[in-house]
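Q: Could you fold this chain for me?
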Amino acid sequence: MSTLADAEGHRVRLAGHQWQSSPGILGQHPLTIDLVRVHESWELGMVWVYAHLVECGWPSSDCTGPWCQELLVDAALLLDAASR
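A: Sure. Below is the predicted structure, expressed as structure tokens.
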């Protein structure tokens, strides 16, 4: 059985309605992220993730942090990604 920690290190594709920048603020566009870390949320069924955008891996990127995005994501979606 996969856990949320198993999702760390995976690339996940999110539709605009599958992520939130803050509780109740739905994303407006699709994102592809590389998960760095998953941590708990007070929002039922949701977890916070630290992640990088795919663009962070491009040679022209100046992203040097351990993560650059913090998003609220459906936990079931991440469990599905971890099980693949």
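A (continued): Residues 75-83 form the longest helix (9 residues).
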